[in-house]
Specification:
- By secondary structure, this protein is mainly α.
- It has two domains: 30 residues, no CATH class; 181 residues, no CATH class.
- The chain is built from nine helices and two strands, in the order ββααααααααα.
- Strands 1-2 form a two-stranded antiparallel sheet.
- The longest helix is centred in the C-terminal third of the chain and has 33 residues.
- The chain is globular.
- The N and C termini lie far apart (76 Å).
- The model has no long low-confidence stretch (mean pLDDT 85).
- Keywords: Membrane, Transmembrane, Transmembrane helix.
- It comes from Flagellimonas zhangzhouensis.
- Pfam families: DUF3667 (PF12412).
- This is DUF3667 domain-containing protein.
């Protein structure tokens, strides 16, 4: 019997018996979308061994630069999309930073001007992270021009790095809320650990261990922080000027 199935995703006619479309990879026997199917798709996107968020988080924890290098080299079906990961973690991090602000931060101990600036930075935290993403990628690309990567490939690297950093921020904010008295000490320790992880990530991505490369990365970290703070200050003063 001639059995033909049309893929609902790419419209290809499949003549041989398959469970998944050999052209786009979508399951062929999909029925009408329902709540059970929606939950199932969500669960697979999180836990899938090859493409799920948990798989990406695990590998970014100890081989972040190698993951980004594999992705730009063409192994894109193996990992959850880095740009989707960045958007997801930024959204979740914003929720936790607002919870931290509401439950663990005492604005009465901060002078009025700095208090308003900090509230503004927290409120638009996600916007500032996404604004810094292309700038961050540009800085890395410029400092490592001799390594034959293009700007978009560095945007992919910074999507991985920024997304995973958001995850570390989420963990940090949870710890801050649980132990607000240790906020200062934990902030320093977490900042140092993230910086070390960041250095390792770029060294892995560019497959180098040279002292010059480490120095470049430290300069990138410094410039990124300065530019980020400058953007926050500039937009805050512009915002207050418009409001007034």
């Amino acid at each position: 019997m001639d059995c033909k199935i049309k893929c609902k995703n790419c419209n290809t006619i499949i003549k041989e018996p398959h469970s998944y479309c050999p052209y786009c990879g979508q399951k062929l026997d999909l029925g009408r979308l329902n709540f059970k199917q929606l939950l199932s798709d969500l669960w697979v996107s999180i836990t899938n061994t090859d493409q799920g968020v948990l798989h990406l988080i695990k590998h970014l924890a100890y081989r972040p630069g190698k993951v980004a290098r594999e992705y730009i080299s063409g192994r894109r079906k193996r990992y959850f999309n880095p740009f989707n990961y960045l958007m997801l973690t930024v959204a979740v991090a914003l929720y936790f930073i607002l919870q931290f602000e509401a439950t663990a931060l005492d604005y009465s101990t901060i002078d009025a001007d700095n208090s308003e600036l900090l509230q503004f930075a927290f409120k638009y935290f996600n916007v500032f992270i996404l604004l810094m993403w292309p700038i961050h990628g540009l800085l890395i690309w410029l400092f490592f021009l001799g390594h034959k990567t293009n700007y978009v490939e560095n945007l992919t690297l910074t999507a991985h790095l920024s997304g995973q950093t958001m995850l570390y921020y989420i963990v940090a904010f949870i710890l801050f809320m649980l132990m607000p008295s240790l906020l200062g000490a934990m902030g320093i320790i977490i900042g140092i650990l993230i910086s070390i992880w960041y250095v390792v990530a770029i060294l892995q991505f560019y497959q180098t261990k040279s002292f010059v490369s480490i120095l470049k990365i430290l300069i990138i970290i410094t410039l990124t922080n300065l530019i980020s703070q400058g953007i926050i200050y500039a937009t805050y003063h512009l915002y207050t000027t418009v409001i007034d």
